[in-house]
Amino acid sequence: MPRDDSNVIENDTKGGSDTHSVEEEPPCMCPTEFAVRRFSNGTCGCDCFDKERDCLRYKKGKEYFSLKDKWCIKIGKCQPPICEYGKFSQKTGRCPRLNEKSPFF
């Protein structure tokens, strides 16, 4: 099941007034094993935490993504994952492996 951050809401108060303005960022969805990362420029990405072995296997191209996750990425509902050795390949359904690393990456 893809992960999202739709429950994340940032509160923004203006001056000393009693009114509160709630700014909600658009949801960011990631493939199942990946975690949502929000960047300071307002964009988001899908990455692994350091000790998540299963996620790191996907990130290094050692595992293929599920049909559900591949479809989610293909239709643009999920962000493609941040891969260790290049860009996620829709054709292979996984991140590139070390020996497939692009010389331009």
TrEMBL record:
It comes from the Eukaryota. One of its GO terms (biological process) is hemocyte migration. It comes from Cacopsylla melanoneura. This is Uncharacterized protein. PANTHER family: FI06402P-RELATED. Residues 1-26 are annotated as: Disordered. Residues 1-23 have a biased composition (Basic and acidic residues).
